[in-house]
Amino acid sequence: MFVVCCLLLDDMLRFLRQGPYIILSLLVFVFELFYILKSKWTNDFWEHSAAVNELSRNLFHPSNPIINENIPHAFYSPYTFLVAVFSKITHLNSIVSLQCFALFNLVFFLLAFYLFCKSIFKVKHQAIATFGLLFVLFFWGLDPSMWSGFYHIMVLNYVLPYPSTFAISLSFLILSMVAAGQKQMVKPAQTVLLIFLNAIVFITHPMTAVFLYTAIVVMTFTFNNYSVKQCFVRSIIIVLPAILLTMLWPYYNIADLLHNSNPDFDIDSKTLYIGILQRFWPALFAIPGMVIFIKEKTINFLSLTMILMVLICWAGWLSGIYGVSRILSDIMILAQISLGCLLVFCIRDFKLWSKIFIGLTGIAFSVSVYVNGQNLIRTWHFNGTYVEDIRRYGFIRDCIADNDLVLSDEFSNWYIPSFGGKVIASRHPLYWVKDLEPRRNAVKVFFANESSDSARFAIINKYKPTYILIDHSRTQLADSTITTIVNKGKEIYKSDGMELIKVDTAVINSWLRKEINKLKPLK
Predict the structure, then answer these.
(1) 360-375: buried (b, 16+ CB within 10 Å) or exposed (e) per residue?
(2) Contact indicator for 466, 400 with CB cutoff of 8 Å
(3) CA distance 194 to 179
(4) Is-contact 419 397, C-beta < 8 A?
(5) What distance in Å separates the CA atoms of residue 71 and residue 78, rounded to the nearest whole number?
(6) Minimal CA–CA distance to 104: which of 61, 165, 155, 193?
(7) pLDDT at residue number 101
(8) CA-to-CA dists, residue 158 to 46, 88, 154, 226, angstroms
């Protein structure tokens, strides 16, 4: 954090003196600040929050942040470590700490994006950065993906606290440093720093590292007049040591993470290959720039990087390694920057073909905004606040001890670990957990109306939860079932549709023995 801040301090002062880009950035900043303050966090946020919570309590020897097992977790990244240290120092909980880093990531992204454009474009870099950012935020096909790693205006407010946002921002900063290094001799200390930062990106978000390392190699070849051998050596010096350095990461084995595919992750990622043209068609507008400005080193760099990444993405589809589809967002960002560059060049030249291209781009941009109109309207809806989930589940911190196991429905399992408890299963992918499907099935059976008391108490006996949490807004258990569960334990909390019951293991075991004895044949 200190190193990054030192690197950015001088450029931040220059950044504040810019015109159009700073205006657009300020508008985005104010817009996103509303969402950060509203605390409308969903899905992956709660797993990241759980990871921060666990690390802030056990910085060097954390257990799994979700389930009650001593199993590594893939979200223990340098970014999560950084947020956890911040949480520990400030005594802020993991949710508030991630909100603070959402703000940090927003500023980091806007600044690093500008520095990247400035480093590769000799002239009009401010205008190119402005158009590029505008296209990144708004110029998409129908229903762009609402995933981490994507940064359009309809999803940015959700992904700001995520490691992927930190990773892409750091990647832009690294690429700006690499571009500056092409013009002068790189000092050994700078090389070491680049290796270290490259390793951070790889561990934090491996798919962003695919983009970063591809861009570094292409940049070295396109920005220099060295021989192929020299270019290869220059790029490999800062890429290969970074990959080797990641093997020293103490929280999990990075090679094991990449080697062992996760079925949940692959199934989810495969959906990104569906409807590619429908969602990413604006990228096609960057093609004229590849052809018309083929002699421009910067355009060659952007074009070759995109082509290589498209091939990597296609290889992921053919090989069944569907997680590679995540780089579609990075391909799109490069296309949008290229389009911004082409638009600036057209405005400057303003010949007949330039006028035609500007007109077509304007029409396409308007169509893009129109087809996503409903999503944009929902994004601009500021009324009310969205701290309901935090408020309803906040009581858990006061009622249970750290690491107590709570049996609850699949939706509540998202939230509980952020407040100190552990759960039986997660809806999201969990690497290295061999019995995840049986765990998920156990949760479903327990909260299914048709399940018997015997089945429910057998689940309690197997996983031995300390508490049972019933969210009446999400589960529809019969009153008689709830009464039975409460009678086998002690009600600790009941308010706002939430009911927390402390399990009495002795009572349940006694009940199970009686049920088993009933099934035994009489002698």
Answers:
(1) ebeebbeebeeebeeb
(2) yes
(3) 12
(4) yes
(5) 18
(6) 165
(7) 96
(8) 11, 24, 9, 43
Report the b/e string of 150-184 with b at 16+ CB within 10 A: bbbbbbbbbbbbbbbbbbbbbbbbbbbbbbebbee
HSE of 32 in the Cβ direction (CA atoms, 13 Å)? 29
C-alpha to C-alpha distance for 343 and 334, rounded to whole angstroms:
14
How many alpha carbons fall within 13 Å on the CB side of residue 429? 16
Tokens of 83: 């947020």
pLDDT-based confidence at residue 24 (cuts at 50, 70, 90): very high
Distance from C-alpha of 191 to C-alpha of 133, rounded to nearest angstrom: 29
SS3 for 493? strand
Residues 327 and 310: their CA atoms lie apart, in Å, by 9
Q: For the chain, how far is it from start to end, CA to CA, in angstroms?
A: 73
Alpha-carbon gap, residue 460 to 406, rounded angstroms: 10
**Residue 497's pLDDT band (cuts 50, 70, 90):** confident
What is the per-residue DSSP string for 268-297? Answer: HHHGGGTTHHHHHGGGGGGHHHHHHTTT-H
Asked if 159 and 379 touch (Cβ cutoff 8 Å), the reply is no
Token code pair at residue 518: 């009933």
* DSSP β-bridge partners for residue 494: 499
Q: What is the arithmetic mean of pLDDT over 236-243?
A: 91
DSSP 3-state assignment of 489?
A: strand
Residues 498 and 472: beta-carbon distance below 8 Å? yes
